[in-house]
Specification:
It comes from Kluyvera cryocrescens. It contains 14 helices and 22 strands. By secondary structure, the chain is an alpha+beta fold.
Length: 479
């Protein structure tokens, strides 16, 4: 395997030498950092079981090694990366798996470590969506997940990944994470704060990650992290779980931030040790009960994870000084809702009582019912799923609703491999057998690709333009 040429500042190396636990060696750390990162993926259990996924990809000759802390996670080795990028496989395009670094699966594993299913969860720094989609899968698409992202350019990527994975229970916001403690006090059962950090753990993926590194910068970042964890702690209900994580290795941004929270609210914070999270967790366990993952321990990115419980209420923050503005949606009346649900079922789109119909002008949306108490408290960029637009002939069903809610057992037109490729390239398809209905959910391997309109013998492509692929696609290989 080729070596990375990683840039290390001298002060960073001195700090790491000092921070290295006795059972680890500094030479092993340096050697691990120089090795390219192993690829890994997480099966999207909202779409497919792990066993069914393994059976589906068995003919491809992928070597899949289980990730110890995530039952859905696997390191992957494959010979045909040059011939076909992993992101261009049929299984990735239809949302059956997410390409996610193994150590980044740890925080969500910690969030759900007690086996409880929280009803209201927040992911404070959510883009590009690996942990958001992992949380939604653990919640089985029920309850409500607020996914926040401060960077406007990354909100679009976050939504694209949520949509591809068929997620319905998520609301997106675009704020500085420091607003939530005041805006949504004691609203969440569980919160993940995967905090912005100096990124010392990602040098295997980005050899230049430490080009702008400095001790001063780390301390400035830590000051922001303290404000973020304080805000998240206020937004957490008593009895709730807060997971604080970073992809960096210094104590200033990790143990010290948690110690600051403990000192600030000594009667209200309890550390929930992570030594039992998976079989070899003790190898990364700190004396406090956190996981401080150096790259050589599990041959993955460096990471830090702390799990905390809020044991008592704390004094609220001053109410926010902004105005949310008028909420532009209204809930649909019972009779109208029944008509929409009936029309959707005829196409093959179905949902349950965890989602409710709301309307804005000609748009019809499905909101997670758990979000209703939060409406009017913050401004949402997007809530749930856009189901349809009304027009004089009925409904124009939306792509993201088909991907999330299609019942392909009842209705669905299975495409050949060649037709599925044409679909992803944005072209119309001409199936050998003409479908019985005008609106047709097209599938490949049994999973929905989108909704087509039958026009004579042609199925008119409605795949969103921004998702259309060119270049190499699945099937252009000898599998």
């Amino acid at each position: 395997m080729a070596q990375n040429s990683v840039y290390f500042p001298d002060e960073f190396l001195a700090q790491m030498r000092e921070a290295m636990p006795a059972h680890l060696t500094f030479d092993d750390f340096l050697e691990a950092c120089q090795r390219p990162l192993r690829r890994s993926l997480r099966v999207n259990t909202l779409k497919i079981t792990v066993d069914d996924f393994l059976a589906l990809v068995a003919p491809y000759g992928w070597q899949l090694t289980p990730v110890p802390w995530c039952a859905e996670g696997f390191w992957i080795e494959r010979d045909d990366e040059e011939a076909l990028p992993l992101g261009s496989t049929a299984e990735h395009l239809s949302g059956l798996f997410y390409i996610q670094e193994a150590s980044s699966m740890l925080p969500v594993a910690a969030l759900f470590a007690d086996g409880m299913l929280p009803e209201r969860v927040m992911d404070v720094a959510a883009a590009p969506g690996s942990k958001t989609t992992q949380i939604a899968a653990r919640m089985n698409n029920r309850g409500m997940l607020l996914a926040n992202e401060f960077s406007a350019s990354r909100v679009k990527v976050l939504h694209a990944n949520i949509s591809r994975c068929g997620i319905a229970n998520t609301a997106l916001t675009h704020f500085d994470g420091r607003v939530f403690g005041a805006a949504l006090p004691e609203c969440f059962d569980a919160i993940l704060l995967d905090a912005p950090c100096s990124g010392e753990g990602v040098v295997r993926k980005d050899p230049d990650a430490l080009k702008n590194w400095s001790l001063t910068s780390n301390l400035e970042i830590a000051a922001t992290q303290r404000e973020l964890i304080d805000s998240a702690f206020h937004a957490l209900r008593p009895g709730g779980t807060l997971v604080y994580s970073t992809c960096t290795l210094n104590r200033d941004e990790n143990e010290s931030v948690v110690a600051w929270l403990l000192a600030r609210y000594p009667q209200a914070v309890e550390i929930m040790p992570l030594g039992e999270l998976f079989t070899t967790a003790s190898e990364a366990l700190t004396p406090e009960g956190f996981l401080h993952v150096f790259p050589q321990i599990y041959d993955c990115e460096g990471f830090f994870v702390a799990r905390l419980r809020k044991t008592a209420a704390i004094a609220p923050l001053p109410a926010p000084g902004y105005k949310v503005g008028k909420f532009p949606f209204f809930p649909m009346k019972t009779r109208e809702s029944a008509e929409v649900a009936s029309a959707a079922r005829k196409v093959g789109i179905e949902w349950d009582e965890s989602l409710a119909l709301w309307q804005r002008d000609k748009e019809i949306w499905l909101f997670p019912t758990e979000i209703e108490p939060l409406l009017g408290k913050v401004r949402f960029s997007r809530i749930g799923i856009k189901l349809a637009e009304t027009h004089n002939k009925g409904f124009r069903w939306q792509h993201e609703a088909v991907i999330a809610l299609a019942n392909t057992d009842k209705l669905g037109q299975e495409l050949t491999l060649e037709d599925a490729q044409e679909w992803y390239r944005g072209r119309d398809v001409y199936p050998q057998q003409s479908p019985a209905h005008d609106d047709v959910i097209v599938t490949f391997q049994g999973f929905p690709l989108g909704l087509a309109k039958r026009i004579n013998s042609r199925l008119k492509n409605s795949y969103p333009r921004e998702l259309v692929r060119d270049g190499k696609l699945f099937g252009n290989r000898s599998e």
